[in-house]
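Each record in this resource describes a single protein on a pair of labelled lines. With that in mind, the following record should read easily:

===
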Amino acid sequence: MFTPDPIPRPSRPPASSTPLGDYLSQPRPGTDSGYAVLPRSLAQAMPLPWQQQMSHLLAQFHQAFGHLPWPVYRVVPSRYERLVDLDEDQLAEVGCTVEVGDNGELEYRMRDGRRIDNPETHQVLVSCLDPILRQNPGGQQPMPAAPPPPPW
């Protein structure tokens, strides 16, 4: 009546109770430890069924958390750069200065005067041009330039 064989168990790990946290904890484009940013132009370029699902999820999210005092977020495209590769404007943006020290070497300092050791390996976030195309006001992606006519 009963088989003496053991019950087969799944070979995969058990399902997580924090699947979104698990997913976002991995290095992913547009995420850091505190935020996940979706470029609007890419989200609006998704296939229609995806957009429908995304709008439904966002509506539920805003229904659940819309009562909180939300700040206005300013998203700035940025990338990591070595401190020694920055120009004066970029150094000012990240709050650093560079000056020639007593020994004739360049010294990098934070805004509060602290010296930065090993500026060759010290990386900071600096703003950059957004590599993701934005949509035109009409909602359409910009059209690529037409190829030049053939020379004949």
Summary: Residues 141-152 have pLDDT under 50 and may be disordered. The longest helix spans residues 48-65. Residues 86-127 form one domain. The first strand starts at residue 78 and ends at 82.
